Amino acid sequence: MSRFYFGGSDTSNSDDDTSLPYPKPLARSAFLTPDFSPTVFLSSLRNRHQTLEDLRSELRTRSQELNKALLDLVNDNYQDFLGLGGSLRGGEEKVEEVRVGLLGFKREVDTLKDKVEGRLEEVGGLLEERRAIAKEVRTGKALLEIDLRLEDLEERLMVGSNGAVNTAVDGDEDDFSASESDDESDEDTRGTTIPLSRLRRRVQQFLYIQRLFAKTGPEHPFLIKQEERMMRIRQTMLLDLSSALLQAGGQDEFSNKRTLDILSIYRDMGASGDALTALRERR
C-alpha cells in the first residue's frame, strides 16, 4: 500500500515520506448500514488523507477478505447445509395434512357464513313485516278515530251517516253542557240565534278530521268512502253559518261584531266564497 501524503506538490520533502502516518483501516461498520450508498460513503472520506489508488487497493483487499470469510463459513457448515436438506424430506405429508385441515376449516367457515347471511335475511324480513304491521295498526287506529269523530260530529249536527236529518235533538241537547253553557253565557242568544261558540267548536272538529285525513292518506279506500259524509257535514255547517249570518243582520254594534266573528269562522273553513254568497243573500 502507498504511503500517506500531506501538503502540496513540494518535491523537496519527498525523501521524508517515510515519516508520514498511514491512514486507519476502513471500519467494517461503515458498510453495514441498511441504506449504504457508495457515493455518500466516498464523500465522507474527504478528510481522509489517502490517494485514490490506495483507497481502491484497500477496498479490493477488504472484498477479498469478505469472500474468503464467506467461503470459510460455507466450508465450516457444509455438513449442516446437507443435513438441512435431508431434514426437510418427508415434510410433504405434514404440509398436506395442514392443507387438508385448512380446507376443512374454510368449508366450515363458509357454511357458517351462509347460515349467518340466511339468518340476517330472515331477521330483515321479519323486521320489515313488523314495521308494516305497526304501520297498518297505526292506520287502523287513525281510521277508527276518524269514523268515531265523524259519527260524533254528525250526531251533534243532527245529520245521519246516510244523509238523513235526525229528528231527535240529542246532539244539540248535549251541547248545552256545563262547560259550553259557561262559554255561551256571555253571548246574547236573542231567541233562536245560534251560539257562535258552538259553531266554532264544530268547525274546529271538522278541521281536525280533515288533518287526520291528510295525515292518514286521503287515497285510502275507507277515507274515499267517507268523503261523502265530510261533504254533508260541511254543507250542514255552512247552512248553520249562513243562518247565523242572516240572523246577525242588524245595524247595531252587537250585530256587526257577530257578523265579523261569523266571517272569521267562514275563513277558518276556507269558505270565503260561501261567506260572500251569504252576505249577498242577507242584503
Mean pLDDT: 77
- Specify the biggest β-sheet: none
Helix share bin: 55-70%
Structural class based on helices, strands and sheet pairing: mainly alpha
Query: How many alpha or pi helices?
Result: 10
**Rg on CA atoms, Å:** 54 Å
Count of strand segments: 0
Return residue spans where pLDDT drops below 50 for at least 5 consecutive residues.
1-15, 165-192
Please give the oligomerization state of what you see.
single chain
> H/E series, N to C?
HHHHHHHHHH
Report how far the terminal alpha carbons are from each other. 136 Å
Tell me the β content. Answer: under 5%
Shape call: elongated
Description:
The protein has 283 residues and is mainly α. The protein has 10 helices and no strands. The chain has helices spanning 38-43, 52-76, 78-87, 91-157, 170-175, 178-184, 196-216, 221-247, 253-269, 272-282. Helix 4 (91-157) runs antiparallel to helix 7, helix 4 runs parallel beside helix 8 and helix 7 packs parallel to helix 9 (253-269). The termini are far apart.
Q: What's a concise summary of this model?
A:
This protein is mostly helical and 283 residues long. The chain is built from 10 helices and no strands.
Please describe the structure with a list of short key phrases separated by commas or semicolons.
283 residues; mainly alpha; elongated; disordered N terminus
Layout of strands and helices, then pairs:
Blueprint: H1 38-43, H2 52-76, H3 78-87, H4 91-157, H5 170-175, H6 178-184, H7 196-216, H8 221-247, H9 253-269, H10 272-282
Helix pairs in contact: 4-7, 4-8, 7-8, 7-9, 8-9, 8-10
